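Need a sequence for this fold. Nothing fancy.
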């Protein structure tokens, strides 16, 4: 799990590499064109010299009319040479991925949107590497796997209930902002809780928010290992701060981790900090019994989780159904 600053630094390196590649390709194109067009080098030099003279005239406060006309004429001759060889007017210019910042990562002193886009792509790859599923879409959640039978827990037939539930979760993702509520996706194993959480993650990332996904057993196991082992770089604190400060935190599979006093303390601190900062969190769990939840995680944590909007997933194990097909 990388911090937002680490993502930014990596994104800037990616953008810088794009710029370097664009300029290298432009140099190759120039060398190839100059070899094919003997008069091209002279025409380029003429544009350069005329450009300098025009700039000097402007800096000295002189009339630039004559110098500007000479520069325009030199550019026209260069364009004509390129056209005669079947090349476009910009054939010698670098072709940047982002025309707004020309792959510098900055526009008018502010970070270009292309850097944020790369950060989103990097976070998406990180989430996909950490989860058992790729970041999915609600469109791939097939309602046919949810039975059309009545269930008293949902107050009617499961399939239309789940159709409404998934539609609500999609709307949650599409309307997400820092004021969004926290959610608890709960229900038996194999009903699509993680799939839905990752579908939300994909949409929220596209909206420009930073999303952190952690598997509860992996995350707290790593924290505990750092806490009771060697941690010279202070990675434990960095991990906690990153998770606590994310625009959206997805804590997957709560209840499958090894329970310990350290886990209880860390989980309480994480939930408390995020609730205090009014940052949305999504928890997925197979625990459907509130009394069991309180028994496992204490009344204080159960109280924090009770502030989450409950989203019950119902039906039969979808993984078993797919395996049987």
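Here you go.
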């Amino acid at each position: 799990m990388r911090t937002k600053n680490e993502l930014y630094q990596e994104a800037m390196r990616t953008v810088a590499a794009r710029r370097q590649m664009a300029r290298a390709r432009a140099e190759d194109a120039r060398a190839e064109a100059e070899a094919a067009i003997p008069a091209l080098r002279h025409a380029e030099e003429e544009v350069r010299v005329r450009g300098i003279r025009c700039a000097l005239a402007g800096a000295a406060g002189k009339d630039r009319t004559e110098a500007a006309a000479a520069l325009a004429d030199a550019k026209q001759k260069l364009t004509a040479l390129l056209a005669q060889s079947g090349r476009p007017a910009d054939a010698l210019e670098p072709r940047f991925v982002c025309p707004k910042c020309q792959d510098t990562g900055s526009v008018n002193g502010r970070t270009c949107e292309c850097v944020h886009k790369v950060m989103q792509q990097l976070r998406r790859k990180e989430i996909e590497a950490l989860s058992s599923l790729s970041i999915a879409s609600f469109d791939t959640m097939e309602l046919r796997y949810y039975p059309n039978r009545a269930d008293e827990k949902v107050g009617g037939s499961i399939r239309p209930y789940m159709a409404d539930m998934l539609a609500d979760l999609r709307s949650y993702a599409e309307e997400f902002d820092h004021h969004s509520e926290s959610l608890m996706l709960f229900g038996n194993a194999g009903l699509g809780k993680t799939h839905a959480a990752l579908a939300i993650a994909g949409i929220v990332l596209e909206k420009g928010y930073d999303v952190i996904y952690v598997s509860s057993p992996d995350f707290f196991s790593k924290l505990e290992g750092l806490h009771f082992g060697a941690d010279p770089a202070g990675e434990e604190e960095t991990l906690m701060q990153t998770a606590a400060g994310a625009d959206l935190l997805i804590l997957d599979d709560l209840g499958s981790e090894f329970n310990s006093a350290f886990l209880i303390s860390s989980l309480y601190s994480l939930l408390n900090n995020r609730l205090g900062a009014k940052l949305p969190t999504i928890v997925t769990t197979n625990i459907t019994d509130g009394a069991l939840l309180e028994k496992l995680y204490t009344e204080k944590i159960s109280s924090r989780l009770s502030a989450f909007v409950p989203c019950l997933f119902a039906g039969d194990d979808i993984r078993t159904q797919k395996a049987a097909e």
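For context: The longest strand covers residues 248-254.
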